Amino acid sequence: MTIETAIRVCASSSVTATAAFAAWQAVESKLEEIGVNNDRRRASLIGQCAHESARFKTRFENLNYSAAGLWKIFRRHFSSQAETNSFARDPEKIANRVYANRMGNGSRTSGDGWRYRGRGYLQLTGKDNYTRYGTAIGEDLVSNPDRAADPDICWLIGAEYLSRTRRSGRTLLEWADVPDILMVTKGINGGTHGLADREVLTGKAHAELTGNASVAEWQALLLNAGLNPGPIDGLFGSKTEAAREAAEAHFGVNGDALLAVLRGIE
């Protein structure tokens, strides 16, 4: 049970897994220094980055929008729906319009919107962020923005983001310790988009890192024991909790001892 297997179970393919793991190895000591120094925090970084990057496959923002897509997502940046027609399927032109004069970027003609478009596992966006996170990790991302899409830098930016971003008095790394995937997700996404997938991926990563059973395995074992944990979806909800409590009461053991009993049931 290793970081390599934790990354692999969350990756889209063996190719993306190999690249992501090699990059982690290259910066592992720096990740520790930033604060990614226990299995909960490692699982949170891996799971959240996997979700945000389509399982480590996407490291550049996709701005290839249709006119309809532009009007739906970036309506406030256009004077009319008709205007979006001249921008459709032109990613550079789109970026320079929708990201102009904000996040530290210059005007539409500066090219900053495209230059500092989203990159990395967590989609670093805007000149201010390229400056801030580049300084934090010791890389000149302003002069070399494509570096933000290299997997080793993706990990470092992700770790710095989790260590710096606070919600309700705690950093996201501290929320990972709880663990509270909902609070980590809100800190990254601003809402709860993709929460179920983030929970599954974080759970898978943690199971691989610790050798403990994942929530999905607990659910399958409880179901096999004749209890009802709800759907086998990797989410530790009220039904799963009730089923595990029932198993503890029935077998008179809990934790690893209960796991061993459930695994021994044919």
UniProtKB/TrEMBL annotation:
<dbReference type="InterPro" id="IPR036366">
    <property type="entry name" value="PGBDSf"/>
</dbReference>
<keyword id="KW-0378">Hydrolase</keyword>
<dbReference type="InterPro" id="IPR023346">
    <property type="entry name" value="Lysozyme-like_dom_sf"/>
</dbReference>
<dbReference type="InterPro" id="IPR052354">
    <property type="entry name" value="Cell_Wall_Dynamics_Protein"/>
</dbReference>
<dbReference type="GO" id="GO:0016787">
    <property type="term" value="F:hydrolase activity"/>
</dbReference>
<dbReference type="InterPro" id="IPR000726">
    <property type="entry name" value="Glyco_hydro_19_cat"/>
</dbReference>
<dbReference type="Pfam" id="PF00182">
    <property type="entry name" value="Glyco_hydro_19"/>
</dbReference>
<protein>
    <submittedName>
        <fullName>Glycoside hydrolase family 19 protein</fullName>
    </submittedName>
</protein>
<feature type="domain" description="Glycoside hydrolase family 19 catalytic">
    <location>
        <begin position="111"/>
        <end position="152"/>
    </location>
</feature>
